[in-house]
Amino acid sequence: MESFALLIAASLSAGTLLALAALGLLINERAGIVNLGAEGMMLVAAMVGFATAFHTGSDALALVAGMGAGALMAALFGLLVIWLNTNQYAAGLALSLFGAGFSAFAGIRYTQEKLGPRALFEIPGLADVPLLGQALFKQHPLVYGAMFLTAAVAWFLYRSRAGLVLRAVGESPESAHALGYPVRRIRLAAVMAGGALCGLAGAYVSVIYTPLWVEGMIAGKGWIALALTTFATWRPGRILAGAYLFGFVTMLQFHLQGQGVAIASQFLSMLPYLATITVLVLISSKASFIRANMPASLGKPFFPGS
Predict the structure, then answer these.
(1) Would the pLDDT of 1 be above 70?
(2) 2-293 belongs to which CATH class?
C-alpha cells in the first residue's frame, strides 16, 4: 500500500506538467489556432528555467522566466500564422524543431550542472494521514496550482464574457469580426497565454520535477499534451483527468521495475506513447463525436476584409 501511495504521488506530479501544457494548447485551439510547437517551447523554457534557477537560486523566478520564454516563442509563432498567414501546421513544426536545436545549443554549458537542495513541501496535519498523506498532501504547490488553473480555465471559457468571445473567435472568426471584435489580437493573446503555460510546464520539468538540464529532456511530452487536448475533446476537466491517467501510465513503468516485474524495460518505456496512440485511434473512430466538440474554425486562417 505504501508503494501504491508513492505511485499515486508520482503520477500526480508527472500529470501536472502534461496538464499545464495541455491547458495552454486548449486555449490556443479554442481560439482556432493549432500550435504544433509545444515540444520546442517546452524545451526552450526548460533550458531558460534551469539557467535562471542555477544563477539566481530562485525557483519562482525560474518558473516566471520559463513562462516568458514560452510566451515569446508563441508570439513569434502568432506573428507568422496570424498576421503573415503562414501555414499553422508547418509553422508549428518549424517552431518545435527550432526549439529543440536552440535549447540544445544554448544549454550545453548547463548539462553537467546541478541545482541546490530542493525544498520539501507538505500540508501540515494532512501530510501525516496514513497513505493519503503520502499520496496527496506532500506535493509541490504547482501540483495544486494546476488543479486550480483547470477550474479557472473552465470558468473563464464557460462563465465569463471574455471566454465567450474567445470561443466565438474559434467557432466563427468572420462573425466575431463583423461584430467588431479584434480577432487577430484576441488570437495572438490566446497563443501567447498558451505559450506561457507550455513554458511553465517546461520550466517545471527542469526546475522541480527532475531537476536538471539534459538535451531533449521533454522527450515527447509536448506531443502527448497536444494529443491530450483531442483526447479530452477540448474540455478543461477532462484534460486534467487525462493528464493524471497519462501520468499514471508513465510512472507505472518505474513502479513495475521497482517491484521486480519481469518485463523488458524497453516495453515499459513504450507504455506512455502506446497509450497515446491507442487513445487517438479509439477517438478517431468516432469522427462525428470529434466534429461535434472541435472548434469549427480550428486550423483555418482568417483574412480580415476578405
Answers:
(1) no
(2) mainly alpha
